[in-house]
């Protein structure tokens, strides 16, 4: 759990790496021009005498990690100040996941419970003001609480969550109708039915990220992601494409890396989402450059990130397509010319 914040009150108490003593209330003193000592905040005052408003203002300047690793452990008044709703309009753990190497420990039930515990606390403390959630490896347990208590939620990013399902997504769709950005990449228990509900109930949705893991070359996930989860990769990309095209007309940015959609599904997206500005099709092996050009013909100013593959000759038999030159058009081998 390198570089990640402490994830529960109990784990905070047992973490030997905490250096919270440096944050204890102290009086910083210096000599004034008369040779008398005074604190940097005025004679006879120290951090322990700060009002709740001032203390909250100070804590707002700390990062989420510093509040959880240090400030919460100083004393009861600091812990109470850290729970102030004004400090919890956003919950963003993504930078910590992004900086660390993907770990098999993140896919364990124990780690998921810690993330759920932390998210649950933030949701409760926010008192309805939470508008942004960016985390990974949470579950329906915490998201159901978020759906019930965060009506102003605008950004939800819950990548790599094997236990986030249609159950919580349906509640999010109905109760968080101000949603404008959704990232459910690598969440294989979320089906196209949730996409339909979200599209119908969240008219402000502009950004959708529904990327799948690299099933073409899963070696990067082996030993980290459980095999049974890798094998559960959604198979029917066209059903999800139809859900997006039929229910999200105002979508502007869409990422569907390694989706198994066909040209029919891509056509449904392009016809149903005329406001698309960016479309990421990386890894969509069933689409050729000709398919993409034809399907997106009616969408103006659309930037498309196309599939880009190097397909080793050992993977396929040449007689399947009759000639190796067909692979250049079929699989978009822009880097390696076969």
From TrEMBL:
Residues 1-15 have a biased composition (Polar residues). Gene3D superfamilies: 1.20.1280.50, Ribonuclease Inhibitor. It comes from the Eukaryota. Residues 48-87 form the F-box domain. Residues 1-46 are annotated as: Disordered. This is F-box domain-containing protein.
